[in-house]
Amino acid sequence: SEATDLIEEHGRIAGARAKTPNGTLEVRAILTLGADGRHSIVRQKAGLTVLDRGAPIDVLWMRLSRKASDPKQSLGHFTAGRILVTLDRGDYWQCAYVIPKGAFEDIKQRGLPAFCEDIAKAASFFGDRTGELKNWDDIKLLAVRVDHLKRWTRSGLLCIGDSAHAMSPIGGVGINLAIQDAVAAANILAPHLLRGTLTDRHLRLVQWRREYPTRMTQRFQILAHKRFVFPALHGKRHPRRLPLPLRLLQRFPSLSRIPARMIGLGFRPEHIRTPEARPPRSGPSRPSRLELPK
Description:
By secondary structure, this protein is of the alpha+beta class. The protein contains seven helices and 13 strands. It has helices at residues 41-46, 104-110, 112-122, 174-195, 200-233, 244-251, 257-264, and strands spanning 2-9, 12-20, 23-28, 32-34, 50-52, 57-65, 75-79, 82-88, 92-100, 140-142, 147-149, 153-154, 157-159.
């Protein structure tokens, strides 16, 4: 089913409408969650204000087969004016080719053979298989956005994940933040939903808890765009030296814990705190406080 609109009654969001193969569906709810990504219909229909932080890049996604002779790990390939990231998916490479914002139409005008040649120049081991890209349908555009909602909530409505804060693909942290939003929402809201005591204040508490890690992550992504990605895309020569932060990581491997923690765990890690997640006690089982009332 595809969400198409929200149900609003007396200034409060009371559910959602969706398009299904059998016609329009109305779903009424005490709480409506917007988790429909960076092109969120929910936040659009709710009239929530989006603050755009700006992003100078887009990304072209594609798949190329993987051979036993290929490099053994995921890599970033930097050449003059080209950035290609290859992610090992077992029998194929998931490839992300970084381009300047809005440049996809110009690339199409040059033709698919010229684009395939650029891929081979960025990573020479792909030279014998760029022909796997048969047409432009094999290449998907990710229009990179870095934005966040001024308010994640309305009465009866909460947005989380990319619906609340679209992230750049830098670091691959969008899914981390989305899951952490969901965990924080469960911890804060579940007891009140089950007791029937949920208020708009509890929804705002979720934003308060998750806004700091979101803003900090976006700041680092914007810094990476400006200091590393944008200069590399517009460079006319092959980069001779790594940027200073990367040289420091290369010289002092122990420093790698800092970006590893920042990317892997985030600025405010979340852990499931609801009673359902607690280790079982010894002895006779007791009904969980979070069981739905019969």
